[in-house]
């Protein structure tokens, strides 16, 4: 069957089920309830595994991908098999990605009932080995991001600077208050000496 015809049929089937309000248990998707693998065809040959993951991660975590490549040249053949962590996400992907265009090409997305990923081959590169070993789902950032940490550090630095500035200003005000008190005391002593009868003698006046 022509891929574009398959795209059209799947979209028509989904629209028909939505119109009739078909329950999930009797939907055509229920046939694939035990498989989270989907088939993606019609891909542009320049797209890499990472490109496909970026698109298909919009609906859930991708845990495996097999972009079929030519064994001799290593170039993409334009289709892949992709596995989600949750089978319900595979349903969303089929319903929403089937028939969309990527780089000007209409892609075909469908369920796969019994897909067996290829075993590790000697010619796999390190990136492919890592993808198959760890999965390739999008990882959620930690609760406290590096940006928020840096912002917290900036805030603490600002607070510390404010404390230092406050201590400096406080010491200055104490110092100025001390100078003012000493000046008042010296002025008071001079005034007292002038009022004292013996001041003239003390100041070197006539005897």
From TrEMBL:
<keyword id="KW-0694">RNA-binding</keyword>
<dbReference type="InterPro" id="IPR051847">
    <property type="entry name" value="RNA_proc/Spliceosome_comp"/>
</dbReference>
<feature type="region of interest" description="Disordered">
    <location>
        <begin position="136"/>
        <end position="207"/>
    </location>
</feature>
<dbReference type="GO" id="GO:0000398">
    <property type="term" value="P:mRNA splicing, via spliceosome"/>
</dbReference>
<dbReference type="GO" id="GO:0005654">
    <property type="term" value="C:nucleoplasm"/>
</dbReference>
<protein>
    <recommendedName>
        <fullName>RNA-binding motif protein, X-linked 2</fullName>
    </recommendedName>
</protein>
<dbReference type="Pfam" id="PF00076">
    <property type="entry name" value="RRM_1"/>
</dbReference>
<dbReference type="GO" id="GO:0005686">
    <property type="term" value="C:U2 snRNP"/>
</dbReference>
<feature type="compositionally biased region" description="Basic and acidic residues">
    <location>
        <begin position="182"/>
        <end position="197"/>
    </location>
</feature>
<dbReference type="InterPro" id="IPR012677">
    <property type="entry name" value="Nucleotide-bd_a/b_plait_sf"/>
</dbReference>
<feature type="compositionally biased region" description="Basic and acidic residues">
    <location>
        <begin position="155"/>
        <end position="170"/>
    </location>
</feature>
<dbReference type="InterPro" id="IPR000504">
    <property type="entry name" value="RRM_dom"/>
</dbReference>
<dbReference type="GO" id="GO:0071013">
    <property type="term" value="C:catalytic step 2 spliceosome"/>
</dbReference>
<dbReference type="GO" id="GO:0003723">
    <property type="term" value="F:RNA binding"/>
</dbReference>
<comment type="subunit">
    <text>Part of the activated spliceosome B/catalytic step 1 spliceosome, one of the forms of the spliceosome which has a well-formed active site but still cannot catalyze the branching reaction and is composed of at least 52 proteins, the U2, U5 and U6 snRNAs and the pre-mRNA. Component of the minor spliceosome, which splices U12-type introns.</text>
</comment>
<dbReference type="InterPro" id="IPR035979">
    <property type="entry name" value="RBD_domain_sf"/>
</dbReference>
<dbReference type="GO" id="GO:0071011">
    <property type="term" value="C:precatalytic spliceosome"/>
</dbReference>
<comment type="function">
    <text>Involved in pre-mRNA splicing as component of the activated spliceosome. As a component of the minor spliceosome, involved in the splicing of U12-type introns in pre-mRNAs.</text>
</comment>
<comment type="similarity">
    <text>Belongs to the IST3 family.</text>
</comment>
<feature type="domain" description="RRM">
    <location>
        <begin position="36"/>
        <end position="114"/>
    </location>
</feature>
<dbReference type="InterPro" id="IPR045844">
    <property type="entry name" value="RRM_Ist3-like"/>
</dbReference>
